[in-house]
Specification:
The chain is mainly beta. The protein folds into 3 domains: about 10-205, Immunoglobulins (Immunoglobulin-like, Sandwich), CATH 2.60.40; about 235-245 and about 290-455, no CATH class; about 460-510, no CATH class. Helices cover about 5% and strands about 30% of the residues. The strands form 10 sheets. Strands 7-8-4-3-6-16 form a 6-stranded antiparallel β-sheet, with no helix packed on it. A 6-stranded antiparallel beta barrel has the order 19-23-26-29-28-27. Strands 9-15-11-12 form a 4-stranded antiparallel β-sheet, with no helix packed on it.
């Protein structure tokens, strides 16, 4: 009988679904023969019922020097039970390479009697013997019979002598209905190798299912997805309403960017006044009455955030989509450290939001000052930090979204998880701002494995500002780098490259010039092609 070196590592080791709905891999622990002249093979048991795993008999056999088998003919959605038992056999009596195969698996051929077999019969008449080797052993009910030849034309297995009947028990008759003179036995006839070690009865279960990235696909329905979010509010209408409010025009009394004032640039003006007011001066675009309070509010808050806020990357948590393979019927929730969905249960877990109003793709947020607490736990010192921040009404931010914050030198500092969001309203149903409570995520968390673009303005295309110059400055160009999301000149907000000893600030697509009132005064034109 075969044996194991360690009593705790016996029989079946694990069962894995391969994610294509029909394939599974079963692994087992290595067993060893008592007789060094013998070899070890493994009987693989498969059943849809836990109670009948071993009583149904082995379905597959593995005789090569490996400890796994892949089954590729399973039913999608079906729960299966598996068991593996080692057998010790003589290579002189058995040539297992003659057994039929399906894919990578070697299986036991089966058939049924077409005529009754008497207790002294030497010819086993079966429905089909095409898959049986030319000689070997078969098991009918509880009786093991050795046959010497296979008459394929007649589908008969021939037994040499009566001594080759009842090798492991008494010789019995066998009727086509399963009766053997004592009781009714299963009617199928299966090729037989050797009695296995019955004490190794560990049973594992798993479901044959589709997993990422092998999800089932149909032309009518596409990939199976979760299409509704039952946990968070659908605020897509809010995003559509607020995403395209006009940029601050910086005309009239408000013709100067306050950022320039705060950075010490000489602009020769001040901030104030009304936009599009009727003041007796002629001009295009002036209105008599009426304006969008929502737009004015968004404009003012955006202007304020550009001064006191900081650009952060927004990672939106997936609440719908294709389920990840870590979310299984046998588990109540997804794995918190899954490398594919990052604990969300959906692929790809988080989607980076690219803010089309800024070249770098980041949103602006204002973080409140807060105390950093260092606590002593059983694992050592633990740093805890939570704070509040606010941003515009667009884009909509939800619980469990992530904000990536950067240090003053442009390197990633920490990532923050949104704990809760409060959205206030102004008047006549208009929206004000989003206020969030966030907590800092420790650097060992799986969230730091989410890939991001920290600055989308560094991606894809480079644009040259059109030639400019004057008598004091020779003609030259500057370079700006734009994200693929930049489709309108008014979306460009950045500083150009250095040329002729200077660079230019581009604000909402307008070149703000240089050296007001000096010989260096000149400008360029931004053209998107």
């Amino acid at each position: 009988m075969p044996y194991y070196l360690e009593k705790n590592n016996v029989g079946t080791e694990a069962v894995y679904t391969l994610g294509d709905g029909k394939s599974m891999e079963i692994t087992w622990n290595q067993a060893y023969p008592n007789n060094p002249l013998n070899k070890i093979a493994y009987n693989i048991y498969v059943s849809t019922s836990y109670e009948t795993v071993f009583t149904e008999g082995p379905k597959y056999i593995s005789y090569e020097a490996k400890n796994f088998i892949r089954l590729t003919d399973l039913i999608p959605g079906q729960m299966y039970y598996f068991g593996v038992r080692p057998i010790e056999y003589s290579p002189i009596l058995y040539d297992l390479s003659l057994l039929p195969t399906f894919g990578d698996a070697t299986y036991y051929p089966e058939s049924v009697l077409r005529e009754n077999l008497t207790s002294n019969g030497l010819e086993v008449k079966m429905v089909d013997t095409s898959e049986f080797p030319s000689s070997g052993f078969i098991k009918i009910g509880t009786e093991v019979i050795k046959y010497s030849s296979n008459n394929l034309s007649l589908n008969n297995l021939l037994v040499s002598t009566l001594s080759d009947r009842g090798i492991n028990s008494k010789v019995r008759l066998h009727n086509v209905d399963g009766y053997d003179g004592y009781t009714y036995q299963p009617t199928y006839i299966k090729y037989y190798v050797q009695t296995e070690a019955l004490e190794y009865d560990r049973v594992f279960k798993n479901q044959s299912r589709f997993e990422y990235p092998e999800y089932a696909y149909t032309s009518a329905d596409g990939y199976k997805q979760v299409t509704s979010d039952d946990l968070t509010s659908d605020l897509s209408a809010s995003d559509l309403q607020n995403k395209d409010f006009p940029y601050q025009d910086y005309k009239g009394y408000r013709r100067v960017d306050p950022v320039l004032l705060m950075t010490g640039v000489c602009v020769g003006s001040y901030i104030g006044g009304e936009q599009y007011c009727v003041d007796g001066y002629s001009g295009v675009g002036r209105t008599l009455r009426g304006f969008s309070l929502q737009d004015r509010n968004n404009q003012n808050q955006e202007e304020l955030l550009e001064i006191v806020g900081e650009p952060v990357v927004l990672l939106r948590r997936s609440h719908t989509g294709i389920r990840c393979s870590c979310f299984t019927p046998g588990r109540e929730s997804q794995q918190s450290r899954c490398e594919y969905c990052f604990g969300t249960g959906f692929i790809p877990g988080y989607n980076q939001f690219f803010y089309e109003r800024r070249s770098d793709g980041r949103i602006l947020a204002r973080f409140s000052p807060s105390k950093e607490q260092v606590k002593l736990s059983d694992l050592g010192f633990e740093s805890e930090f939570s704070t509040e921040c606010w941003t515009l009404t667009y884009p909509t931010i939800k619980d469990r979204d992530i904000l990536v914050r950067y240090s003053i030198d442009g390197e990633e500092e920490f990532r923050y998880e949104v704990i809760d969001v409060a959205r206030n309203k102004t008047i006549v149903g208009q929206q004000g701002a989003q206020k969030m409570q966030v907590r800092r995520i420790r650097k060992t968390d799986i969230y730091y494995q989410i890939p991001i673009f920290k600055d989308s303005s560094k991606i894809p295309r480079k644009v040259l500002l059109e030639f400019g110059g004057n008598a004091a400055v020779p003609p030259h160009t500057h370079e700006i780098v734009l994200s693929e999301n930049i489709t309108n000149i008014s979306q460009v907000n950045q500083v150009s490259s250095m040329s002729q000893g200077h660079s230019h600030i581009i604000k909402n697509g307008l070149i703000l010039g240089i050296g007001a009132g000096s010989a260096l005064q000149h400008t360029h034109i931004v053209k998107l092609t």
